[in-house]
Queue: 2 jobs
Job 1
Amino acid sequence: MIVCRPASLKMIVASVMGALLLSACQSTPQSQQSGLNASRANTAPQAQVSFRQDSIEGAYEVLAAKDSNQLFVAATPLFEDRTAGFVHVLDQDTLQPTQLIQLPRRAFALGLNQKTHTLYVGNTLDGSLLALNSLNGTVKQLIQLGQKEDKGGWEHTRKVIIDEQDNRIFVTNPAEGGRVWIVDGTQGRILHNIDNVGLWPAGAAYDANTKRLFVGQGGKQEIAVINPATGTIEQRFSTGDAKSDKREDSRHFFVNVALSADGKQLFGADANTGKIYVFDTTSGKVENSVDVGPGLLDIVYNPARQELIATNRGVDRDSPAGTGAINILDARTLTVKHRLSAPIHPNSVTLSADGQTAFVTIKAPHGDKSPHYLKGAKDSVLRLNLNQL
């Protein structure tokens, strides 16, 4: 990753928001050799794949329901305008498909309000949200957030975060000007349209106890802390490494972020450097960091095991043909406990309700220049039994 204008912005934001492999379905455990350089973080024991299924075309975010056995996978097979998106519903235990929901717009991001049984699908390229009944897959509402752009297309949406307590949806817009939309889930209308959040707002995490929304981005002040009730930015965190908000001066890009269970620490996945940064959420100071690997993308905090799970795609501008990994770290020390090589590009990660199972989408290589390219290969969903690592 470069440290100025990130190649990862197009490669990662265009992938996950809206193209962040494997073929042949497997249902038996399989060990895999680590593909990461041993100089990255620490060497760690090999992990076990519990189940693997390679059957989804254009898979992006994955989301596990906590009150049912549903596993949702957003998918967009084609990028052309006015093409359909899909949500694949899988069984969490077997990864067998239980439902396929076709949508009128392309699907990338996911958020679930389990109190209202509403699944929100982020239509990144169309700048909108689709609200679905999570129990039967019917479309309840289309919520248009982004406006039409002069050059064509729409202002993009990116991350979708749910506030179940107050029935709100938080959506980031990774533009240079930077925007966050706060949406009323009851009426499906915009409560706050927050401009000038920062450079490329991307990842987000919500602390329901303190009612603060943390937004990761690039620029000089890489974390914005928002009060959703007022729609105002109350605090900003900075690594201190960038001298301005100009894109050429940006040194970090926090593409995804996660909060500790007590809300005292914010973990940021920096796609630009391949490092995880830990911020104290009171002072905003950087407490720690660890080098995970090129193409660092998604990150989740697992309170049941006090672990972090982070995916890195394994590629950057200098090594476009690399393979990625799923990294499991001790959240207290940032020590890498397990590293699972997952050719080609691990993408989105989610956890089961009890925190003992992780699900990861894996992207197949798109171009035949990759040594791992296989014509017709589809994207994958991996199921990892964390107790067996």
Note: The chain is about 5% helix and 45% strand.
Job 2
Amino acid sequence: MTAAAQPIGALLLKRWRDPAAWMTTADIFAVLLALSLPWSTSLVGIFAVVIVVVMLPTIDARAFIASLKRPICVFPIALFALALAGTLWSDARWGMRFYAVAPTAKFLLLPLLFYHFERSQRGLWVLTAFLASCVALLAMSWLVDFYPHLTLKAKDVASPGIFVKNYIDQSQEFALCAVALAFPIAALLRAGKIALALLFGAIALGFLANMAFVIVSRTALVTIPIMLAVFALLHLRWQTTLMILCAAVVAGLVAWAASPLLQEKISSIDLEYRLYEDQGATTSVGERLEFWRKSLRFFVEAPIVGHGTGSTEGLFEQAAAGQTGVAAEVIRNPHNQTLNVAVQWGVLGVIVLYAMWFSHLLLFRGEGLFNWIGLLVVVQNIFTSLFNSHLFDFHEGWMYVLGVGVAGGLVLKGTTGEARELSAS
């Protein structure tokens, strides 16, 4: 028994000390995180903690510390540090201050993901896992639309075609996947791989059809054309871009005529605005305009370093005193990422936020699939953050961290590989 146990113990100890084994483990949990993101919040939190733990044995301290000096790492860390420091000048209760710090903590994973996937060979697995998981969610969305009793949502909050979470999160996932597939479809067509291109095209159309006929957020409707325009400008000739633009206009008009959902989503904007202006009614458009107006006033009151971390709810409570209708609404999130940061940390916070976005845009300025995916994640986040605080929202924030972190590591791996080849020659 003892003789047999010794080789087993020695083998386990060897595996325990093997960085390659830890690399593989970290890759597996990154894949699990990507698979769980469209479905669960608790699993994402668990897998994120595990990823950090299993990545630690793979880290070369000197190389990792050197990598932290890159702007793509400096600014996410700075945003967290600013949120933590902002607790010192906030008037909010301490529980609220630390609650407001929590959404920025996930940005600390970005340097680890950059470092890990710059060395890993399985980054594409993670991106593929997210796409596969979204395809499964797409199938479930269609099923729930035809059989509403299959949803896991409570009856009072259930929406058509929503199995888990909500229509905003689902629309963000489907929009990202649909537009991201444009690059491999174009590449496959150029390579003459028609069957695979048609398969990816059918999947992309499935996402778009779901948003046209089942459920979609207005934020996704605004950002999809922007993302498609970015793709056309970066990857297509102007003649092809013009043809696709004309085709997209025709397709949009057909979808508009055939989809009551799209007609309702667009036409309701003007109605909601007029109800807010004339009656002070609580509508989605009216709420955002009210939140933005008040947030701008809060920002002007403390423009340099803001009111401190977690101060937003208290400021809205003070502004709501004696008010009725939408003016009496009290929220923690002004539904605009810039204003969310500006109210709490002033111009200093806005500079850090924009510097992070800009550094990540620069990271993905090259050619290739991984540059395209990373760029698309950043562009989507920037534009959807005009209408929501998507960096601080759980789901969209993790989409950003995972997409930018994994794609960024793969891009950095390609860059360092090219640098080594140039230096060798």
Note: Confidence is low (pLDDT under 50) at residues 418-425.
